From TrEMBL:
Alphabetical list of InterPro entries matching this protein: DNA_bind_recomb_sf (IPR038109), DNA_bind_recombinase_dom (IPR011109), SSR_resolvase (IPR050639)
Domain Recombinase, chain residue ranges per copy: 2-56
TM region(s), chain numbering: none
Name under which the protein is recorded: Cassette chromosome recombinase B
Organism listed in the record: Staphylococcus aureus
GO molecular function, one term: DNA strand exchange activity
């Protein structure tokens, strides 16, 4: 919110939301009114412009290069459990311009189970601690 609030560069914003008087507001207004304020700006206009350019650059979606599926997906299976394996490619470009392509082959079902197991290990003690904290905090 701080990075998009024009108040910090000495301006005041009006009509930010559509239909403000309605009980259910429609959302943000495309063209809010921004006027010069009488307060001293905290951030310079040049720094504000740099931040807005950086925010716009970061908000652009990255390009998707490979929309097709990997040729090994669905063909290979785990030698131990016979579960289907999925393959994915990752390309890493170094400073000198050389590209490294890494192929990762994994058993997806075990990856999901491992994530659930880790979450359970992490969250169960936290929930127990929270239950004890609320129980004993009510007593005091």
């Amino acid at each position: 919110y701080i990075l998009s609030n024009p108040f910090y560069i000495g301006k005041i914003q009006f009509a930010k939301y559509k239909d403000w008087n309605d009980k259910r507001r429609k959302g943000l207004n495309d063209k809010p009114v921004i006027a010069e304020g009488k307060h001293t700006p905290i951030i310079s206009q040049s720094l504000w412009d740099k931040v807005q350019a950086r925010k716009k650059q970061a908000s652009e979606k990255p390009q998707v290069h490979g929309k097709g599926t990997n040729i090994l997906t669905g063909i290979i299976s785990c030698p131990q459990c016979s579960a289907p394996m999925a393959a994915s490619n990752t390309t890493n470009t170094l400073k000198d311009g050389t590209k490294n392509v890494f192929v990762t082959i994994r058993v997806v079902i075990f990856e999901i189970k491992a994530q659930r197991y880790v979450l359970r290990i992490v969250l169960e003690p936290m929930s127990l601690k929270n239950m004890l904290w609320t129980k004993y905090s009510k007593l005091s």
